[in-house]
Each structure stands twice: as structure tokens, then as C-alpha cells.
């Protein structure tokens, strides 16, 4: 084997050591309600994480850039689906509920840096619980008794998702304790906005 072929192999392997498995790309969510509008519908402040000047570098940065985009889109999917389902009991999965599933599937293809593995687990668990809640609502239709804002707070999938989101937020706060006040607010806003409660 020549030096050139060894270098080629090393270069190819280096290209595949990012945060994605394979060449899967984040699904594009198309809907008239923007991410910004979804935050306003909650209503909740939206603070974007600023990587410039941050302590988050290298693989952590590459992973969190993708994770935060997923969370923003997941907020939109959750908020619009909740709004649509509360207005008219679903008979089948709505468009954004299906898109939410695609976001979850994409998240599962990411390989987080070791110190963010628990964060990834928490985010996957929270999103899975929320999607399962919507599936139960689709199955129950008009007779689903947790469709109101007060009632959903007592649903085990909703309370479970909330616990996972809090756990994910705490992972980030511990891992990046030196972040600016604004970036810590972004950590909070992403996870609080994705939460039902």
C-alpha cells in the first residue's frame, strides 16, 4: 500500500467522524407557521445560542448546532400540533406530527461527543414521550380526555417528557457552567419552550 492510498483512507475516515451517521440530512419542515411565530404562540421568549465567543468548541459545537436546530423545529412541530389537535380532535397524524417524528429519527443518527451523550438520551426520551402523547390523542380522537391545557399536565407522557427536558437542560448547565448569561438563557429557552408544561 502506498503512502498516497494510506493518506486517502485517513482523509475519508476523517470525513466520517463528524456528528452525523452516514450522510443523512436534517429534514426540512415546511409550514406557514415559522419557528419564531411558534415561540410567540406559547408564548415564550426565544434566545438563540451564540457560538461566537462561547466556551463550546470543536465536536461539542458541531453537535449542539444541530441539536439546537432540531429543538427549534421540534418546538414548532409540538406547538402547531397541539394547537391543531386542541381545535379539532385528530383522526390521524397531522403533518407536523409526522415531521416531528422525522426530526426525532434524524436526532437518533447523530453521534454526540461523550460528555453530551446524556443530553442526547434526554432529548430523545423527551421527544419520544411527546410523540407518544400525540399518538394516544390520535387514537382517542374526541374521547381523549387529556386534550386541554389543564388535563395534559397530568398525562404520564407529558410529565415524563418534562422531566427529560429538565435533565437535558441540567446536563448543559453543568457542562458549560462558564457560558454567558445570554447563552444560559438560551439553554433554558430551548428546553422550556419544547416542554408542554
Report the helical percentage. Answer: 55-70%
Mean pLDDT equals 88
| Largest sheet report | none
Q: Give the total of domains.
A: 1
What string gives the helices and strands in order?
HHHHHHHH
Give the total of beta strands: 0
**Rg value:** 19 Å
Termini separation (Å)? 60 Å
**What general outline do the C-alpha atoms trace?**
globular
The stretches of 5 or more residues where confidence is low (pLDDT under 50) are 1-22
Approximately how much beta-strand content do the residues carry?
under 5%
Helices and strands: which structural class? mainly alpha
Number of H/I helices? 8
Gist?
This protein has about 200 residues and is an all-alpha fold. The protein has 8 helices and no strands. About 30% of the residues are buried.
Overview of this protein structure:
By secondary structure, the protein is an all-alpha fold. The chain has one domain. The chain is 63% helix and 0% strand. It contains 8 helices and no strands. The longest helix is centred in the middle third of the chain and has 30 residues, at 58-87. The termini are far apart. The model is unreliable at 1-22 (pLDDT under 50).
Amino acid at each position: 500500500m502506498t503512502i498516497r492510498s494510506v493518506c486517502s483512507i485517513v482523509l475519508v475516515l476523517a470525513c466520517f467522524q463528524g456528528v452525523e451517521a452516514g450522510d443523512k440530512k436534517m429534514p426540512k419542515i415546511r409550514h406557514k407557521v415559522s419557528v419564531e411565530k411558534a415561540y410567540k404562540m406559547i408564548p415564550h421568549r426565544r434566545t438563540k445560542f451564540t457560538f461566537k465567543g462561547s466556551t463550546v468548541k470543536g465536536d461539542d459545537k458541531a453537535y449542539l448546532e444541530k441539536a439546537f436546530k432540531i429543538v427549534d423545529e421540534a418546538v414548532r412541530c409540538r406547538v402547531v400540533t397541539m394547537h391543531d389537535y386542541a381545535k379539532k380532535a385528530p383522526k390521524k397524524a397531522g403533518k407536523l406530527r409526522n415531521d416531528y417524528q422525522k426530526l426525532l429519527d434524524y436526532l437518533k443518527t447523530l453521534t454526540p461527543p461523550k460528555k453530551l451523550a446524556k443530553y442526547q438520551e434526554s432529548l430523545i426520551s423527551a421527544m419520544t414521550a411527546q410523540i407518544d402523547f400525540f399518538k394516544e390523542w390520535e387514537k382517542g380522537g374526541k374521547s381523549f380526555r387529556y386534550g386541554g391545557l389543564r388535563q395534559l399536565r397530568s398525562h404520564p407522557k407529558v410529565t415524563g417528557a418534562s422531566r427529560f427536558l429538565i435533565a437535558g437542560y441540567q446536563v448543559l448547565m453543568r457542562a458549560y457552567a462558564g457560558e454567558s448569561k445570554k447563552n444560559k438563557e438560551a439553554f433554558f429557552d430551548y428546553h422550556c419552550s419544547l416542554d408542554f408544561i
